[in-house]
Design goal:
Mean pLDDT of chain A: 87
Strand content of chain B: over 45%
Number of strands of chain A: 10
Strand content of chain A: over 45%
Number of strands of chain B: 11
Radius of gyration of chain B: 13 Å
Largest sheet of chain A: 6 strands, mixed
Order of helices and strands of chain A: EEEEEEEEEE
Structural class of chain A: mainly beta
Oligomer: heterodimer
Number of helices of chain A: 0
Order of helices and strands of chain B: EEEEEEEEEEE
Number of helices of chain B: 0
Helix content of chain A: under 10%
Structural class of chain B: mainly beta
Mean pLDDT of chain B: 85
Radius of gyration of chain A: 13 Å
């Protein structure tokens, strides 16, 4: 079946603008994760959704970052008033169980460049 | 907070040599440990998942071991090929705390 998809694949924006990144998880996967990877750095956890439970937002770097998920489907990550340090690849992953008991499947990422 | 460290940061070997990549983590109460590879300009590819009750997993030329008591995992790649050149990441826990990766170059 189809894997995790993300859109857009690339986004260039001006400093101060808002951006929305979209993730379509694998159908039936209850868990969804957002990560980001800045150039030359490791992956950084942002937020975790599991079914209808309250999301784990412990990785969000500031209140400019927020994410929503509709049921067990699409998720959007919103960055308000973007800054140059927000430039990174934003990766989404989904898995079929919570607590990390199942493999996480990653999307191709959205490359965000803030000018 | 879980901290994951990977050593070495970079590795260059001639084709045919075996590769040994090390990963250490600070919190032994992990659910699983997952190894990924990342190719330039592409997303992550999952290689192996070791659950907390397991000690190793094998897939083809890849073998990953897990020692929770010492907080270590090792990825072995046998008979390396130029196509194995990539950055290899290990990650621990359900929310996946990632190491910074080991960049591998296999010289033809």
């Amino acid at each position: 079946g189809a894997g995790v998809s993300q859109s857009p694949s690339n986004k260039v924006t001006e400093k101060g603008k808002d951006v929305e990144l979209r993730c379509d998880p694998i159908s039936g996967h209850t868990a969804l994760y957002w990560y980001r990877q800045r150039l030359g750095q490791g992956l950084e956890f942002l937020i975790y959704f599991q079914g209808n439970s309250a999301p784990d937002k412990s990785g969000l770097p500031s209140d400019r970052f927020s994410a929503e998920r509709t049921g067990e489907s699409v998720s959007t990550l919103t960055i308000q008033r973007t800054q140059q340090e927000d430039s990174a690849v934003y990766l989404c992953a989904s898995s079929s169980q919570s607590g990390g008991q199942e493999t996480q499947y990653f999307g191709p990422g959205t490359r965000l460049l803030v000018l | 907070k879980q901290e994951v460290t990977q050593i070495p940061a970079a590795l260059s070997v001639p084709e045919g040599e075996n590769l040994v990549l090390n990963c250490s983590f600070t919190d032994s109460a992990i659910y699983n440990l997952q190894w990924f590879r990342q190719d330039p300009g592409k997303g992550l590819t999952s290689l192996l998942l070791i659950q907390s009750s397991q000690r190793e997993q094998t897939s083809g030329r890849l073998n990953a071991s897990l020692d929770k008591s010492s907080g270590r995992s090792t990825l072995y790649i046998a008979a390396s090929q130029p196509g194995d050149s990539a950055t290899y990441l290990c990650a621990a826990l359900g929310k996946l705390s990632f190491g910074a990766g080991t960049t591998v170059t296999v010289r033809a």
